[in-house]
Amino acid sequence: MSHSYTECNSAIMVDAQRRRLLVACCDVDGRQHRKYFSFVWRAGMEPRFYRHKRWRLEVTLSLSSISTTLVTFL
To answer: Which domain of life, per UniProt (predicted)?
Structure first.
């Protein structure tokens, strides 16, 4: 199964109470999508993987920033 990596520029919104991110990303055709992902704030801020249908988001949480990498499966 082939896959492509798309860097997400930023998390548009972080909803800490509901523990979710709203992320803007572009697919391989250049179309923009906005996706919600759940996240868990863990001690040590390890990278974690979260599934959303055909999308997988790797979220690295730190005290100063949130880094996101979206993986799309074709």
So the answer is: Eukaryota
Which residues, in sequence order, are bridge partners of residue 36?
22
Tell me the pTM. Answer: 0.36
Local structure of residue 43 (DSSP, 8 states): T
CA atoms within 13 A on the CB side of 27: 12
Helix, coil or strand: residue 44: coil
pLDDT exceeds 60 at position 46: no
- Which positions ≥6 away from 71 have C-beta within 8 Å? 3, 4, 5, 6, 55, 56, 57, 58
Q: Tokens at residue 62, please?
A: 């730190």
